[in-house]
Structures are given as C-alpha cells and as structure tokens.
Amino acid sequence: MMHEDLLGRSDLVRPIAVAIVFTLVGEVLIFLIWGIGIFPKGTLWRKLVWTITCGVAMGATIGALVNLFVTGRLRTRTAAVTAAAIYFSVLAFCIGLCFEIALSVNYFGAREAPVLFIPGGLIPALVTSFGYSWLLYSDSGEAILTRVGL
Known about the structure:
With 150 residues, the protein is an all-alpha fold. The protein has helices spanning 9-38, 44-69, 76-105, 114-137, 139-147. It has one domain (10-147). The chain has five helices and no strands. Helix 1 packs antiparallel against helix 2 and helix 1 runs antiparallel to helix 4 (114-137). It is elongated. The two termini are 23 Å apart. The model has no long low-confidence stretch (mean pLDDT 94).
C-alpha cells in the first residue's frame, strides 16, 4: 500500500473529476431526452435542479469511494474492475432511489413507463462504468486525462 504523501494531486482529483463529468453528462442527457423530450410533465427548473444536484452528488460519491478503496491501494486490472464496480453500484443505488422519488412527483416517465425507467438508467451506467475505469486505469486513458489537464 502506498503512503498518501506519495500520491500526486491528480491521483486524487482524477477519480472525482472524471466521475462528476460522466454523471453530469448522463444526467443532462436524461433530462433532455426523458425530462423534456419524452415526458415533459412537471416544472422544468425543478427537474433541472434535480439533474444538476444528482449529477454532482453521484460523481462526488463515486470519486470519493474510488479514492477510499482503490487509489494508492490497488493497481492495474484489480483497480479497474473495483473502480467500475463502485461506479456501477453507486449509480444502481441512485437509479432505484430516483425511481421512487420520480414516482412520487411524476417526473421522467416513472409512472408512464416504469419498465423503461430502471433499464434506461442501468444500461448506460454499466456501459459508462467501463469507460470511467478505462480512463483512470489504462495507459491510453491516463494519457487522455493528462492531455486535458487532469
């Protein structure tokens, strides 16, 4: 196990920043497609605040958990698999929670299309978990993050 003082700032910032970018982009897409396009019921600004708040909170939680359990502790494939599992687990929990809330306020098609709501979140969460992990724990992913200043 590495000592924390051997970790660079980017080692700790990357998992949080990348997760927040991924979850914010995902939430904005859900907002645009499900919240405005397909199921426009409800107050637009409330859905937007929900979108931004959840995107930042989910990303920060994922990044913090990856820092706690992976950064400086695990390497290579083990780090990548663990980070992807953390990413997906946090999002899966949040999808279930968001479904319950959306049902109560009738947002994002939770009442009209409940059968699509959960898979519509879980499938992208699973796919992006691999992208998240690849960016953080592969040489080519790390090179991309370095080029963009992370």
